[in-house]
Design brief:
two-stranded antiparallel ribbon, five-stranded parallel beta sheet, 15% strand, alpha/beta, 248 residues
Amino acid sequence: MIFILSKILLFLIKPIVWIFVLLIFAIATKQSKQRKRYLICSLIIFFFFSNGFIVGKIINSYEADYPRAGKFDVGIVLGGFSGLNKRNNEIAFNWAGDRLFQAIALYKKGQIKQILLSGGSANLIDRKIKEADLVIQYLKLIGIPDSAILIENQSRNTIENARYSLALIAKNKPKAKILVITSAWHIPRAKLIFDKQAKQKIEYYPTNFSGDTEFDLSDIIIPNASALGVWEMLFKEWIGLAVDGLRA
């Protein structure tokens, strides 16, 4: 039930949904003053949440930085970066694919000895396709040996990522040095969850940063549709951080 409710919540936290609802109220109301208020509110929300400068500054302060250089026995790659391309029945990477690509680079540079793929199915209906199963085929295709791959394909969220991955490592490599690899904006929540469940110190490696390091005048005055998506992602993470703090 919690899993289903979380999917509903993801819809409700979208700023574009709030704007759409306000516009519906503006159209439906017969009072001109009330209509004006709804329209003004929708415009304020639109211009605030579509401002690339505002959201850029906020997410820059939230995203994690790189850890100190070191070598690790296992790099846990958190899922959510790929799915099945039904046109050719092969893996398709999304905007978070950098999680895997950075893990491969770390392996090639000798900074991690093994890659642990952590990801099952987050689909409410079709749970047959497991993300980690798709990714392992890709790693084999590009020449990563079986001995360098560990797989956890049952998790549906970050709490389960931590629970199942740490259990697998405890069973096979109880004294392993662990590096968790995930999106920079996801690390604060991942750190909260993994640190609660782990019996050792864990380091975290950020990927696919969402915040820009430089801004120009257009970021301040021109609405940016992608900024709406970044806010949605931040709201999801902040709510998840609060909830996971209670139940992790």
